[in-house]
Amino acid sequence: MRNAKGFSVVEVLIAAAILAVVLLAIASLFSTAYSNVGYGGRRTKAVALAKQKMEELRDGFFPPSTVGSPETVEGIYTRSWTVTVTGAPSQVATVTVTVAWPDAGYGTKQATLTSMMAP
């Protein structure tokens, strides 16, 4: 029996336990990754909606309307904007567009873009 080759039951059980711990750690990463991908998608959409509104304000009259009442876009996003005219009459306008959305477990998140416009 001394020259018998192979693994003992104890060695197999230890190897199986180590493998189980590693697989559980990897499996827990999937839920975190899924959550992060969802958050990233919602944030990307919010920034795109803010850019869209910024371009609409740039294409309109100068200076744009000073305050935009919050509007709901695509169901969960709330978009609002403010315009502050500075300098001599109507020379420069600072435009801030904010898009907010509810994020499960983390409250309300928001993306804000600020830009300056001139006539």
List keywords for this structure.
34% strand; single chain; four-stranded antiparallel beta sheet; 119 residues; alpha+beta; rod-shaped
Summarize, please.
The protein is an alpha+beta fold and 119 residues long. It is built from one helix and four strands.
Write up what this structure looks like.
The chain is of the alpha+beta class. The protein has one domain (9-117). Helices cover 43% and strands 34% of the residues. It is built from 1 helix and 4 strands. It has one helix at 9-59, and strands spanning 67-73, 77-86, 92-103, 107-117. The chain has a 4-stranded antiparallel sheet, with helices on one face. The chain is rod-shaped and about 100 Å long. The relative contact order is 0.14. The mean pLDDT is 87.
> For the terminal residues, how far apart are their CA atoms?
93 Å
Sequence of strands across the biggest β-sheet? 1-2-3-4
Number of domains: 1
Secondary-structure-based class equals: alpha+beta
Q: What is the helix tally? A: 1
* Number of strand segments: 4
How helix-rich are the residues, as a percent range? 40-55%
Q: Give the SSE order as H and E letters.
A: HEEEE
Main sheet: strands, sense, barrel: 4 strands, antiparallel
The outline comes out as rod-shaped
* Chain-averaged pLDDT: 87
Portion of residues in beta strands equals 25-35%
Tell me the radius of gyration.
27 Å
What low-confidence regions span 5 or more consecutive residues with pLDDT below 50?
none
